[in-house]
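Q: I'm writing up a methods section and want to include an example of the input and output format. Could you take the sequence below and give the corresponding predicted structure tokens, formatted cleanly so I can copy it straight into the document?
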Amino acid sequence: MLTKRIIPCLDIKNGRTVKGVNFIRLRDAGDPVELAARYAEEGADELVFLDISATEEKRKTLSELVLRVAEKVNIPFTVGGGISSVDDVGMLLKCGADKVSINSSAVKNPQLINELVAKFGSQCIVVAIDAKMIDNQWKVHLVGGKVSTELDLFGWAKEVEERGAGEILFTSMDHDGTKNGFANSALAKLSTELNIPIIASGGAGSVQHFIDTFTTGKADAALAASVFHFKEIEIKELKQQLFNNEIPVRL
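A: Here is the clean output for your methods example:
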């Protein structure tokens, strides 16, 4: 059985790590290079680095910062934010990223997924999907959650898989930063309908929430930010608790 992965997320704005609630009310969480080094040391399985304002500000991801983080970590490292072309991805991989995450650009130009997979391979391409519940339907949102679409989460996820993406990073905007647990029913549906790994994001607040998302939500990986940044949950302790609950993890 594949081990479940624990993934700290560095949301970057103006070169600093930030964390908000429901994608707003951001507060400073520290230096991304120092945090990345700490997480690699503490036993995180992977890291995700999201330049959260790159798309809105119509600029590229901070490649110099990516380079500095990559020099400090020895675990897989995914970078996202403002990526819209094959050249963007090539540059980030050259700077030390192992995978890239695309979101708004994939919705605006779905063929980009096919192009990136053809050039770099499925294992390199993560499609992030931010969605919130509107009129009892999960609707996809773009530009850091600021732009709503009529796209249905499950239909879009299926298309993403068919176009060759290697993983989906699903963030529930309704759960983001609330620490009330992950969107497990939506995650379970995604995991049942798709054959590629699903990363759960949004809502981690306790060890039990991680246990629940791996069991009830059937997630392949769980991503969290503030509970790790502010040391509310220690990664080694979390993994030990998961192991004690018969959830396969890398200790």
